[in-house]
Amino acid sequence: MRNGRRGLAALVAVGLVATIAACSSGGGDDDTVDTSAPVTIKVQGLPVATDKANRAAFQKNVEQFEADNPNITVKATDEIYSSAAFTTQFAGGTAPTVIVVPFTEPAALIAREQVADISKEIADIGELDSLNPAALGVLKADDKLYGVPQNVYALGLVYNRELFTKAGLDPDKPPATWDEVRADAKAIKEKTGVAGFGSMTSNGTGGWQLTAQTVSSGDVIQKADGDKFTSTIDNPATRSILQWQHDLRFTDDSIGTNVLREQPDAEKAFASGQVGMIIATPSYYNRYIGQYAGKPADFGVTSMPQANDANKALIGGTAVMVTSTASAAERAAAVKWIYYEYVRPQLDTTAAANQAKANNADGIGVGVPLLPLFDDETQAKISAAIKPYVNIDLDHFAPYIDGVKKLTFVPEPSVATQQIYKSLDTVVQQVLTKPDADIDALLQKADKQAQSLIDQAG
């Protein structure tokens, strides 16, 4: 889903890194491009108007990029990618030149030939040989590269430190298991009257959250055997998590009555103190303070709570890709922009320091931990470069930083992911709205529906 946003991911390394060679196979319709000719590209990634600081920072970067590349005009849009809306745009050739998509999308976009092979343009830059291969896996096919990772994240649990204190809980010792989350949610509701946990159930977030909790309880909702994919939604871990949500709603009354939220709704409710805990990543912090005016002192985050000694967390991220309808000139300009906006600040120490200084001045969080995009040596240099400008309370992020080091990371399902997530929304909604919901029957039906979606996807 949409947890990834702008920021410097440089303060935590969790053992995912290695070195690869940049792809060098050619792509596109023309190997000769006049890099001085005027060209216009439309790019996604502009933060929404309510996220004022990040939006202003993005627009400053556009202005500087255009100053450095006077032949390139960048038209930025704050439209957020959705597979349904963009199907029409791809068909009509009206999609932005540069798109920003969740990691669940690249495989299908590549298979449908809706995104361009940018191997040659990336190789021409010549500075990406230290990229984390775990972040590139979903962006490659047949040794060709179709995108660049914007960020890679492992989901965690964000919690309100002030509500923890009011409920008699220790904000420096957040819950480590789902049973502890339930107990803390109940305490928050009883002591403060605020919903202890905020569930997401709409626009695919119900299925996404359920998948994340299933992984951290020791199972997955989809398995692969070679090129054969099978739905495994009807499993004990998913069943136990649905029962857990049902119990929070109808036994403990600690999840509240507003159970038809999607991610922005849950994030807004949390930032305003209406919810004590939600599933999110540390990168939500910048939306928390910039878009929703949350109090920095109240923000706490820990690694994903566990069950059944799973020691696992769902890994995700966002990727930046170029649409296949782009001309050779547009493709070259697009990759220049991608490098300038997304890669350079996380690779070049001077650029990283300048970006960190500017973000600090604009009130944007610097030092928010994500998983590393580059190898240990590169990450260490970036960490040192931005250290003078770190403006977050690292103690509030320490439970996450320490916790993710102990976890194994599991990628999101590979086939029909967003469709399956949306189909699971109904399951979660029924569990949270019907005291007599038949979880076994719901899972059996959902499993068959998911397999049908997998089969349709080929």
UniProtKB/TrEMBL annotation:
SUPFAM superfamilies: Periplasmic binding protein-like II
PROSITE patterns to which the protein is assigned, alphabetical: PROKAR_LIPOPROTEIN
Superkingdom of origin: Bacteria
Protein name: Sugar ABC transporter substrate-binding protein
The keyword Ion transport is annotated on this UniProt entry: no
Signal peptide residues on this chain, from the entry's feature table: 1-23
Keyword 4Fe-4S: no
Transmembrane segments: none
The species this protein was found in: Luteimicrobium album
Gene3D superfamilies membership: Periplasmic binding protein-like II
Keywords for the protein's UniProt record, in alphabetical order: Signal
